[in-house]
Design brief:
Distance between the termini of chain A: 52 Å
CATH topology of the largest domain in chain A: Rossmann fold
Number of strands of chain A: 14
Helix content of chain A: 40-55%
Order of helices and strands of chain B: HHHHHHHEEEHHHHEHHH
Radius of gyration of chain B: 20 Å
CATH superfamily of the largest domain in chain A: Response regulator
Oligomer: heterodimer
Strand order of the largest sheet of chain B: 1-4
Number of domains of chain A: 2
Number of helices of chain A: 11
Strand content of chain A: 15-25%
Radius of gyration of chain A: 21 Å
Shape of chain B: globular
Helix content of chain B: over 70%
Chain lengths: 334, 327
């Protein structure tokens, strides 16, 4: 008995250390299999990125609405594979029926996911796919190649026939989301990596101040450009500050659909952003978890939750919504 | 032949010891000359101004870091304290507090943190590395808690963003208020370190604390004062950061602490305390930004830029060690 309470204490301590129990709506024993009661665990990359805050709040609300139990854990920083592995292990330990996870790296947490699935837990990737994709039961995410392609198609249309001269401000070297968006953009605008039409490119890790500095340095090299690709909206804000300081008005596109980003588009800082829908990912993931608990039925494959171009200057051939619609559907604080 | 070689090396070592800012100044000049010759764009007034502007935040952090390293300490929490201060200032401003008051409150918080660090180092005798490592973790979390998942944009026209305002001196030289403030801070600290009793005490404490104590210097009080002043400087770095990017972001400057140490080390200040100068640090901060700007204009991938910066840091410390050995 005493040993057992000691074990509880140690477990509680480890849980505290392993980080960041954000929400736990249940206590006590795990639901027996087949009881129909869904217990959903959400593992995000970090707790503080507004995108993941939206994901978490939406999943929590959906779980409450559908009578599922819900807990959320997160890594401590972008790239914290170890923290995510611990989160998965803790959730399996506590008898979740489904884990929804935005994996920090496509390969870093595969072993832990495999163990969870062997223990009978359904695992769904949200937002970011695993590699290989069938390491999880299903993926609910933005098709980032398609999102990048839409940005590229918009920029191409807005250039109205003039030959593109592009600066690309990418995210983090080696990240799949960044690579997909980058490749999609090139596809949409009709260029290849290494094309001389790409007058400059650099990584800014999605950080506004780094993006500003990189853009300033690239502009010093050449201001002969007519379009800018940015990997996300903080990057676009940094790039815009650098362009504005030089008095340049350059056609710029971005991706994300955060409310601040949509507002930036409305204010004319950049022409368009491609919105993705974290709330939809979370809601559909929770719905799948509830279905699984009731019927044992699992979704499979890649389920695209869609992306939409947001702009107040629509281009023929590129379907889009205006910023008023964008502000109604954006994620993060309005 | 051999004798003369040895003699020349000895005098070179002594030279570096006498004037620690000479090495970095030479490196900076060489880098500027190389980039001016190899690109047509580097040596433009606008670009040179930009390079200075890009180095301001890390340069200001490095200024406080210099004081601490002069006492043979180190601060791993400075950038985290700065980021926390940017968020506090921005949140207060958005909440309706006047900009001036928000600024003062933010600076007071970082100064108080400096006081806490200094007290733990002197009274509890904890190594500065450990104290600031713990603070780094706590302050990073605190900034994220304050931010609640959201970056906080502030109006570009507000006092908190004022340091980013650009003016043209003599009709053509672009200068921001942030640069002016940095220059004033460097001059004040240069004066305090080289022309006042306090400055002599700081160097003495870093060189040989026991000797300093025996000669009547209040070692603990000096060290606490250094952390307090450094804390004030980190608060001003937060103001610089908001001038540069008027958007307080809990995820910004994750490597700011290491960047500040890089600048100090490149500036010729010894990590073992007691030797170094604020102007060396100024050079060190500039060297990193000059390298990044110039290499970008040459079209060098940013990962190779990181490799170059890292190699330079190791080389700088090697020079420091060799110079000491030859003394």
């Amino acid at each position: 008995m005493r040993q057992r309470s000691l074990l509880c204490l140690v477990t509680a301590g480890l849980l505290a250390v392993s980080g960041c129990t954000v929400e736990r709506h249940w206590g006590g024993s795990s639901a027996p299999a087949g009881s129909g009661q869904a217990k959903v665990g959400l593992v995000t990359k970090t707790e503080t990125n507004p995108y993941f805050v939206e994901l978490r709040n939406a999943a929590s609300a959906a779980a409450q609405a559908q009578g599922a139990e819900f807990m959320a854990l997160a890594g401590q920083f972008d790239g914290d594979n170890d923290g995510q592995v611990r989160a998965i292990e803790n959730m399996v330990q506590q008898g979740v029926t489904t884990i929804l996870i935005t994996p920090n790296s496509s390969t870093g947490v595969l072993a832990a996911i495999e163990r969870a699935r062997q223990a009978g837990v359904m695992v769904i990737a949200l937002d970011t796919a695993t590699d290989p994709a069938d390491a999880v039961d299903a993926t609910y995410a933005t098709d980032n190649v398609a999102a990048g392609r839409q940005q590229g198609a918009y920029v191409k249309a807005a250039l109205a026939g003039s030959a593109p001269k592009v600066i690309m401000i990418d995210g983090t070297a080696g990240s799949t989301v960044d690579t997909y968006r980058h490749n999609g953009f090139l596809e949409g605008i009709g260029l290849r990596d290494g094309d001389p039409a790409i007058v400059g490119r650099d990584n800014a890790n999605g950080d506004q101040s780094i993006a500003q500095q990189k853009m300033e340095n690239l502009l010093q090299r050449s201001t002969d450009l007519n379009a800018v690709y940015t990997m996300n909206e903080p990057t676009a804000r940094g790039a815009y500050a650098a362009l504005q300081a030089r008095g340049l008005r350059i056609l710029m596109g971005s991706i994300d659909g955060g409310c601040q980003g949509v507002q930036n588009v409305r204010d004319g800082q950049y022409a368009a952003t491609v919105m993705q829908f974290p709330r939809k990912m979370a809601e559909e993931g929770v719905a799948a978890a509830v279905r699984y608990a009731k019927t044992g039925e699992k979704p499979s494959g890649f389920i695209d939750t869609g992306s939409v171009v947001i702009t107040d200057r629509p281009m023929p051939g590129v379907p889009s919504q205006d910023t008023t619609w964008g502000l109604q559907n954006c994620w993060g604080t309005k | 032949m051999t004798a003369s070689t040895v003699e020349r090396r000895e005098s070179l070592g002594e030279f570096f010891l006498r004037a620690p800012a000479i090495g970095p100044a030479l490196a900076l000049v060489v880098a500027v000359v190389v980039f001016s010759l190899s690109t047509s764009t580097f040596l433009e007034l606008d670009n040179l101004s930009l390079v200075v502007e890009q180095s301001l935040v890390v340069g200001t952090l490095a200024l406080g870091q210099t004081l601490i390293i002069l006492t043979a300490g180190i601060d791993l929490s400075n950038a985290a304290a700065m980021v926390l201060a940017t968020l506090l200032m921005a949140k207060l401003l958005v909440g309706g507090v006047p900009g001036g008051l928000a600024l003062i409150l933010g600076v007071l918080v970082t100064a108080a943190l400096g006081l806490v660090t200094g007290s733990l180092v002197t009274r509890v005798k904890l190594p500065p590395f450990i104290v600031t490592l713990g603070l780094f973790t706590m302050l990073t979390a605190a900034a994220k808690l304050v931010a609640d998942g959201q970056a906080v944009p502030i109006a570009p026209g507000s006092l908190l963003a004022w340091l980013g305002t650009r003016r043209y001196l003599f009709g053509g030289i672009p200068v921001t208020y942030g640069m002016t403030l940095a220059l004033v801070m460097y001059l004040v600290l240069w004066y305090a370190l080289t022309r006042t009793a306090w400055g002599k005490h700081v160097y003495a404490v870093g060189n040989a604390p026991e000797a300093a104590r025996l000669s009547g210097i209040k070692v603990n009080r000096t060290i606490v004062s250094v952390y307090l002043v450094a804390g004030l400087i980190f608060g001003i770095a937060a103001w610089q950061a908001l001038g540069r990017v008027p958007n307080a972001d809990p995820n910004a400057y994750q490597l700011g602490n290491l960047d500040s140490i890089t600048a100090v080390v490149l500036g010729g200040t010894s990590l073992f305390g007691g030797r170094g100068s604020v102007f060396g640090t100024m050079m060190g901060a500039l060297i990193v930004t000059v390298l990044r700007s110039g290499l970008t204009q040459l079209g060098v991938d940013s990962l190779y830029q990181d490799v170059a910066t890292g190699a330079l840091v190791i080389a700088a410390v090697a020079v420091d060690r060799l110079a000491r050995r030859q003394k």
